[in-house]
Write a structure and sequence with these properties.
This protein is of the alpha/beta class. The chain is built from 13 helices and 15 strands. The strands form 3 sheets. Strands 3, 4, 5, 6, 7, 14 and 15 form a 7-stranded mixed β-sheet that branches. Bound molecules: nicotinamide-adenine-dinucleotide (NAD) and zinc ion (ZN) (2 copies).
Amino acid sequence: MRALAWHGKRDVRVDTVPDPTIEQPTDAIIRVTSSAICGSDLHLYDVLGPFLDAGDILGHEPMGIVEEVGSEVKHIAPGDRVVIPFNISCGHCYMCAEQKLFAMCETTQNHEQGTGASLLGFSKLYGQVPGGQAEFLRVPQAQFGPIKVPEGPADERFLFLSDVLPTAWQGVAYAETPEGGTLAVFGLGPIGQMACRIAKHNGLRVIGEDLVPDRLELARNLGVEVVDTEQVDDIADALREMTSGRGPDSVLEAVGMEAHGSPVGKAAQTVAGILPDAVAQKVIETGGIDRLGALMDCFESVRRGGTVSISGVYGGTANPINLFQLFDKGVQLRMGQAHVKRWINDIMPLLTDDSDPLGTEDFASHKIPLEEAPHGYEIFQKKEDGAFKVVLKP
Ligand SMILES: NC(=O)c1ccc[n+]([C@@H]2O[C@H](COP(=O)([O-])OP(=O)(O)OC[C@H]3O[C@@H](n4cnc5c(N)ncnc54)[C@H](O)[C@@H]3O)[C@@H](O)[C@H]2O)c1
Ligand SMILES: [Zn+2]
Ligand SMILES: [Zn+2]
């Protein structure tokens, strides 16, 4: 089959590789019909390269048609239309069954790396499981993971159940903005934009922050007030001015470790990028490699006693954080990988509603053949050609 494989820093290629096969009775094989590129893939494409091997297949936002199931897979059958969550979770362990913390699944946790549940297409940090930017995908723990979706609407109506929708939903839920309150959303990429749509749908006042003009425009068109972070001297001051001098009740961080405007973190990431893998892994695991500009702005902006909900991915273990500020302001912090299946029942009614209130069908900016995936990565990373969300069609 054809599949998008990582070969080096900013070097991904579509290769011919063996078709996947059923390896466990809990596996399924799907024929992928749509597979999106995520902001998280951009971290793998660039700064997290030391955790990948040449040939690793990327992609954790796939959907398609079931081709084959293992003997223990009962809730789906060949021919079914399914979306595959990016978390690989078993559904029956303590974390899955009792806590609904599917990104912490104890069956697929990575003890050697000290990380949570395995994720599709997500480097050695998360199980090195081949991903879904490919013609076919082996789905582990398929007795639980795949989400059956109805026939009819275009793939894009349901595709974002794999990641963007539950991640944005969890980000908004964790922000716990009081009724009538204000939510600031930092980062207006796919996660931030979807969070804005969900928060507006919930009746909140939303203020979005980014520096890419067309992304600010997209948010403005949703009725979101926007702040261009390049046009203000102090973002927190600008937000306080808009919120009776106090700052927003909650802040959702949807930027992540490659934030613009963080010179120290950028230098550290550049150094890590030229070291041999084993050394670079240590630097990333033990050093403060994240670019913290956006996160610091979130901490600075949130009102006293407010909540910061972090959806953006961070990986540095020695980041300098102003704990005095957080403690003195009495800030609540919530974060983590999305627990995809926890939110599906809440989201589904909005997708089966034909008015498509979250605008999922128009969400992708680019739908391109799998063969053009390297170009898709490039324009998404450089934010060229209006690339906002790229969906690959194998
Ligand atoms: N928690 C999860 O389960 C989960 C799931 C999916 C994605 N993510 C993470 O969410 C983050 C966003 O993903 P995305 O797909 O929307 O990616 P993206 O890279 O397209 O979006 C990031 C946005 O932040 C903006 N930005 C950069 N620096 C900024 C700054 N200093 N202030 C304000 N805005 C700034 C960028 O211009 C961009 O629009 C990534 O870190 C991704 O890894 C997390
Ligand atoms: Zn993703
Ligand atoms: Zn589990």
